[in-house]
Design brief:
4-stranded antiparallel sheet, 5% strand, BCCT family transporter, Amino acid/polyamine transporter I, elongated, transport, 665 residues, mainly alpha
Length: 665
Amino acid sequence: MKTTLKSGIIVPSLVFIIGVSIISVLFPKNTDYILTLIKQFIFVNLNWVYIWTVTIFVIFLVYLLFSKHGNTRLGNNDSLPEHSFFSWISMLFAAGMGIGLMYFGVAEPMQHYNAEAFAGSHEINRAKNAQLYTFFHWGIHAWAIYAVVGLSLAYFSYRYKLPLSLRSCFYPLLKDKIRGNWGNTVDIFALCSTFFGITTTLGFGVVQINSGLQIMGIVPETSFIYQIIIVAILVTLAVLSAVTGVDKGIKFLSNLNISIVVILLLFVLFLGPTVFLIGSFTEGLGNYVNNFFNLTFGTHVYEEKTLPWFYDWTILYWAWWISWSPFVGLFIAKISKGRTIKEFILAVLILPSVFNFIWMSVFGNSAIWFDTNVAQGALSEISNNADALMFKFLEYLPLSGFLNFVVILIIVIFFITSADSGIFVINNIATENAVESPKWQSVFWGALLAILALFLLNAGGLQSLQSMTLITALPFSIIMLFFIVSLIKALTIDRNYYDRSFSESVIPWSGEIWKKRLNDIVSFKDESTVEDFIKTTVKAGMQELEQQFSEYKISAKINETENPVKIEIEIQHGRVNNFIYGVKVEPKILSEYLQTEKNLPDVEGNLTYFPKAYFGDARQGYDVQYFTQNELISDILKHYERFLEIISEEKNEMFVSSNFNRRKK
């Protein structure tokens, strides 16, 4: 099969990725030194950019949640979700946090608890702060970053039929320029950022897996040889999963992992200090809500002692989530077709955040409790060794050997799901969302991720790559603000389009055929009766209108199907969407009380049928069973007049050309 890779994206991306990786391998210390200086300059002098952008993301999403746009569907108005709610949540959760939960579940609360910035506080306050800041870094703000990118991509791809690509998010601003160098530049940036982020995460994940296997006695040491073996096995599995697609491998592994994660969570909850954990979670949630706005706008500018901690944690996290957002956003968008904006925001912001709060409370607070009451500070002594801390913590629980095995299994599956969804997304960007790509491309991306991760891990260049990833977050945060501008502009056009009322040319009923109208109203029709209405009255009206259109040199055609019975008149266009007005047979379930009502005509069964109008733009149709032939023609002309009025306005160009956009992909 011919490659689907786009040379305008793939060539510059590979040159930059491989070039940066080679420099990081050959000169790891010098590269890390320079990139660290740049990163520190940004964090110290431009940290307010991250604070304001993330704050704007949260405010914007809350606005959408309660606005009139919340019921807008990510797709046509009649679109349905492609995945079950559980599978959807499992996949976005696995892609969004994955290995990070296992790596930082114990490590982050313990490091906040022992941070020098809070050394003067009482241990109770330090424990509360540890939970509070962990909630802050893994909660609503983190998922708001992902949600902005995911929502923009899903909306423009499924609503406007544009490619599932970051360039599509600029369509209201750049129009057809997104298909040229401007669009390529955005996708190159997204591909490189995604590749660096996944490579870095996989490198650190391999180290943690190796450490866990050593603690369990499966391997004798944490060495590069064993890391090569681990990467080879896991990336092979990831490629196999990616090749099977989202609907099979990725969905199965995500569902499996979230189930195992919940089991592990319950084990630690009930085997650890249960009452303390439930109480601390409750108090921690209240503390988070009470301090939400202080945390959101906090810059620590009045607390110089805590500024280094602030740069190394909060600002680093915002930069890290932003740099990961092209990858996670693309994947979330891919699996979110058919959801409403309100449903998307609620699910992406709230559910993962709450689960993260529960997870971090159970593991982090358990570790602090054990460190204070049982371990006598032993966990605090190794709090900076995140690779081994989770496994050391489990030693203070019953069934620690079994729990170690479960943790390794979870990390392995998270490793695979991060890698396979990463391969999927990278290939998606590099091919401009090609419908079908040859399998060797997934193998190529998987091999490249594995090789570069191992080279950088062995040479000590992962830190350089991580710094590069964090630096790219600054320009991308500005790009994301333009996503919001585009989304607001498009949603406004969208809303005006569907709210547009008909002209005042609606023909009212007259009293000439009132007896027939009454008969129609009190009759419950079977399927064959409605089919006859469509084949006679509707068809005759459309044929008469088709003939009249031809006199004005307008080419209209009648489309008719038998199973199910429906007929439509279509006027085709080259640039704007076709005008379609159709009528189809639609069943309706009758209520039980209506079936037994004596003061109505008898009803046979619980189903009745009616002829329902439908339109090419998927607006809500309605019952036309009472229309005469001339009234039906008049109704079609109402919609055609509305159609011409809308396409005559330049601002509607984006929406009314969505089918053209699909053909241009």
